[in-house]
Design goal:
The protein is of the alpha/beta class. Helices cover 23% and strands 16% of the residues.
Length: 519
């Protein structure tokens, strides 16, 4: 979902094992939720580490406490045991409601493909923000945003939280509200200073310092970033790219337009070098929705929509189900990228019940090759694609958005283009989040379930097999599943169905028209 791709072999290893390095085998990390009213929960309210130490003594296993997620949810550490084994043992305790490994999640990255090379001179794309305009000709998956803007461009009372890598507040198409932009003061929820890359843990600065990784960092045995990547990585500026799609300043004579240029964006930083831990992501989601997080000031701008362009493989854990239930009960819509596994199962947190999972489409309306799919998908939206296959040729249909030109530390503000591209379900998700924010701008009484139903009921039908000349060889998408002899082959471009890509193609104009009628 971003222009810098993680090597496929490393991604497969990380997702299969559920941890980022060999060091995790000897350093367990688990998220524990204490039962309400238990003696340990009561003790823990007096000091964060008291309940954890008591639980460790009961198991005969020294444990220490990490960052808090909520009043009863705590990260715990132990040595000489795997995270999975520690979670299993903790879950058996009567004082524990659930215990799950504190796994690492990643920016949902685009496929590792020769056309995704960086450093090639060029500009574009010549088609501009094709994904926002009305469908025309071969472009069938675009949003028809001007029909929606005829009803509203969004209200400043509606806040969309971008739970991601943070944001560059200096981009002229974003900027802080105080100087004419749409960015609110957010929060940095990354608790590990080494991974945060800003010399501290959690703090009130949500700006993105960069998430690059050096060869020395990934080669340092015993270090926090040991083997978290196969090779050095440049900074992604992922949160800035996502934020621009939602609410880039519009009609300012420069740059691009956001889907909902009248709403506000709340940056919540949960990803740093080599991704982020579930505990920080869960804390960031809770804080974004206005729920309490121990040791963190209350959020003065609770979000009505949360965008999650992050995740990894595996089922929705008890910790994510718990958080999603509480957040949606508070009235906040959660939108998440389905993932970029080339037709395999939807990842977490998009797979969690109550989340609006978004798959990616090519400009013609078929599933784009990199997108995950499955019954969990609610609706699909443009994810960007290149069409052409010639080496060093410009990408024809990328998702143009805001970024930064720095390869490591921040440099000049910039936009992605036909050679420095943004493609992936990371960029389909904020398109949906932006339309959800527009709908809430018309009617703030809508519940998360009603917003989801609105988007699904107004979606345009997918093109049918054989209806697109340029995709005559594509077959109908089938539900992802494993085989008896190993993983199933990738599903690249295919014709979507309601059981693989959701209810249809996102239609902003139709959704807002329906929202206006039902007020």
């Amino acid at each position: 979902m971003v222009s810098v791709a993680r090597p496929a072999c490393l991604t497969a290893l990380l997702l299969a094992q559920g941890f980022a390095s060999a060091a995790d085998v000897d350093a367990a990390r688990v998220i524990v939720k204490f039962r309400a009213g238990s003696a340990l929960a009561s003790a823990r309210s007096q000091a964060l580490s008291t309940g954890v130490q008591a639980l460790g003594a009961r198991l005969g296993l020294p444990m220490s406490s990490g960052a808090a997620v909520s009043d009863r949810i705590q990260v715990v550490f132990a040595s000489g045991v795997t995270s999975a084994e520690l979670a299993r043992r903790l879950a058996q305790q009567s004082d524990v409601e659930y215990a799950v490994p504190d796994e690492r999640r990643w920016i949902v990255r685009g496929p590792n493909d020769p056309l995704y090379a960086e450093g090639v001179p060029g500009s574009g794309p010549a088609v501009g923000q094709w994904y926002l305009r009305a469908p025309s000709g071969d472009v069938r998956s675009s949003l028809d945003i001007e029909a929606a803007w005829a009803l509203t461009t969004g209200s400043p009372d509606v806040v969309v939280a971008v739970v991601d890598t943070g944001v560059r507040y200096d981009h002229p198409d974003l900027l802080e509200v105080a100087v004419g932009g749409n960015l609110l003061p957010g929060y940095d929820m990354v608790s590990d200073a080494a991974k945060a890359n800003d010399d501290d843990g959690r703090d009130g600065d949500a700006s993105d310092p960069g998430d690059w990784v050096t060869q020395a960092e990934i080669a340092q045995r015993g270090g926090e970033l040991f083997r978290c990547a196969d090779s050095p990585e440049q900074s992604s500026w992922h949160g800035t790219q996502v934020s621009g799609l939602i609410a880039a300043v519009t009609h300012n004579g420069i740059g691009m337009a956001g889907v909902a240029p009248g709403v506000r964006v709340l940056p919540v930083r949960v990803l740093g070098k080599c991704g982020g831990r579930d505990s920080d992501i869960l804390a960031g989601m809770r804080w974004a929705a206005g729920l309490s997080v121990p040791g963190v000031p209350a959020n003065p701008y609770p979000a009505r929509v949360i965008n999650l362009s992050l995740g990894s493989d595996g089922p929705c854990s008890a910790a994510y189900r718990d958080a999603v239930d509480q957040i949606t009960a508070a009235g906040t819509v959660i939108v998440a990228a389905a993932g970029n596994t080339s037709g395999h199962a939807v990842g977490t947190p998009a797979s969690c019940p109550g989340v609006i999972a978004v798959a990616g489409l090519r400009q013609v309306g078929t599933k784009v090759g990199f997108s995950s799919l499955g019954a969990e998908v609610a609706v699909s939206a443009p994810g960007g694609n290149c069409v052409n296959t010639a080496p060093d040729a410009p990408c024809l249909f990328p998702i143009l958005t805001t970024t930064n030109s720095g390869t490591t530390v921040p440099a000049a503000p910039a936009y992605t283009d036909s050679f420095h591209i943004s493609v992936g379900t990371s960029f389909a998700s904020p398109l949906v989040a932006g339309v959800a924010a527009l709908a809430l701008s018309l009617d703030r009484t809508r519940t998360p379930a009603q917003v989801k139903e609105l988007l699904q009921s107004t979606a345009r039908p997918f093109p049918t097999q054989g209806s697109i000349a340029s995709s005559s060889t594509a077959q109908e998408c089938t539900p992802p599943q494993a085989t008896l002899v190993g993983p199933r082959a990738d599903q690249l471009e295919c014709y979507c169905t309601a059981t693989t890509c959701g209810a249809g193609m996102l239609d902003a104009g139709a959704a807002l028209a329906a929202a206006a009628r039902s007020r």
